[in-house]
Amino acid sequence: MARRSDDRGDTDEGGILSPDELDISQDEHVAEIDDGRYVVSPGDPIDDVPAVDSRGSGADANAELPPEPAREPEPEPKAPELTEEAVHEFLATQFDDSGSRYGFDITATFDGATRQRQMVSNDVVTIFESLVLWYAQQIDGKTPVEEVLGIMLMEANVPVRYPPASLQRLLESTDLSPDDSIADLIAAVGDEDGFRL
Where is the sequence biased in composition, kind Basic and acidic residues (predicted)? Predict the structure, then answer.
């Protein structure tokens, strides 16, 4: 490395170096191997120094890097087991989140055919009506729904109590008077289509 000399040619070890003397890039004993990185030879001049890549590995910058090891695919998340309990919990959560006061979810089989129906509502009558109409439609697709319901209620072992207003509406739908007999009532409403309450 160059040392500063004074005007008399003597070497001064303790003097201040000038900017030109601090620039070592032009010295034949110094070779730049990367931006701001140098190799300094203590003896002979340096002819050729292999370039160092930006990672400082000492390899030729143009050399091919070893391939990265293949990554094993990450295992897919395992699907939760579908159990009866899991289905019930899912439906319970679904109904809780619906915000409705009433609801049902039915999976039923009719002569080997599986059918499903789900409904939510804040009206209890709408829910019941939807349920029984759907059920009656699955029983017999050819017979009118109201007739299927009438037959099922008549054949069931559960007596149905109708409010008096329904009987009053039935009587008002005929031309009968208080003087007419029960036989007249049966004749008036007992046609082949039946009657509605």
Answer: 26-37, 69-81
What tens digit of pLDDT does each residue of 122-155 get? 999 999 999 999 999 998 888 888 888 888 888 8
User: If DSSP codes are grouped into helix, strand and coil, which group holds residue 101?
Assistant: coil
Q: Do the Cβ atoms of 53 and 59 come closer than 8 Å?
A: yes
Work out the widest C-alpha separation in the chain, in whole angstroms.
155
Q: What is the dihedral of CA 124, 125, 128, 133, to 10 degrees?
A: -150
DSSP 5: B
Nearest to 134 by CA among 105, 156, 161: 105
The model's pLDDT over 54-103, given as tens digits with 9 standing for 90+, comes to 454 444 555 566 777 778 888 778 777 888 898 889 999 999 999 899 99
Residues 6+ apart with CB under 8 A from 155: none
**DSSP symbol at 4:** -
Contact 100, 120 (CB under 8 A): yes
Query: Do residues 176 and 184 lie in contact, with contact meaning Cβ atoms separated by under 8 Å?
Result: yes
In the structure encoding, which two tokens stand for residue 28, read together?
Answer: 């034949």
32/15 Cα distance (integer angstroms): 27
- 137 φ/ψ angles, rounded to the nearest 5 degrees: -65, -35
